[in-house]
Write a structure and sequence with these properties.
Strand content: 25-35%
CATH class of the largest domain: Mainly Beta
Number of strands: 10
Number of helices: 2
CATH architecture of the largest domain: 3-layer Sandwich
Structural class: alpha+beta
CATH topology of the largest domain: Rieske Iron-sulfur Protein
Helix content: 25-40%
Distance between the termini: 57 Å
Number of domains: 2
Radius of gyration: 21 Å
Strand order of the largest sheet: 1-10-9-4-3-2
Order of helices and strands: HEHEEEEEEEEE
């Protein structure tokens, strides 16, 4: 390889390696703009994953929960979260880490069965994450969850 080719490839590699840093700076700047703007003018989706002083994270709205029978947030600050209404107490909510403990597939809420089901290998879990049917042996991770006003909030245990 001649000097010119080497320097060209080296320069390209250097520029590409700076891309994640630039993207992080851009995203951080946008997050600051959203945080400092008038929240009444923003759609509800921009409020997702806002931390409260008591450690709870805003995951979504009660309207979203009622419309979809669940709220799934794969990118929350506390990790992936799946929130559903409690089958025994409809005014309460339950939150689990939706990652199946068998091989990592995302479980889905089956409201007719009042349980979570893994689409990959048919593992099943109760509403509070306990294993009903294998091949999974460990329960799903759980979070504290509550409804406050029109907001669904979740906190790591």
């Amino acid at each position: 390889m001649n000097r010119r080719s080497f320097l060209s490839w080296f320069g390209l590699g250097w520029a590409v390696s700076r891309l994640p840093v630039a993207m992080t700076a851009i995203v951080s700047g946008l997050a600051g703009c959203i945080k400092n703007s008038d929240s009444a003018a923003l759609p509800s989706a921009t409020a997702i994953n806002v931390a409260k002083s008591d450690g709870f994270q805003l995951i979504g709205s009660v309207a979203d929960l009622d419309k979809n029978n669940q709220i799934l947030s794969e990118q929350s600050a506390i990790g992936p979260v799946l929130v559903v209404r409690s089958p025994t107490t409809p005014t309460a909510v339950l939150a689990v880490n939706p990652t199946c403990t068998h091989q990592g597939c995302l479980v889905a809420w089956k409201s007719e069965r009042k349980s979570f089901a893994c689409p990959c290998h048919s593992a099943a879990f109760t509403a509070d994450g306990a294993v009903i049917q294998g091949p999974a042996r460990k329960p799903l991770g759980t979070y504290l969850a509550k409804i406050e006003g029109n907001s669904v909030l979740v906190k790591k245990v």
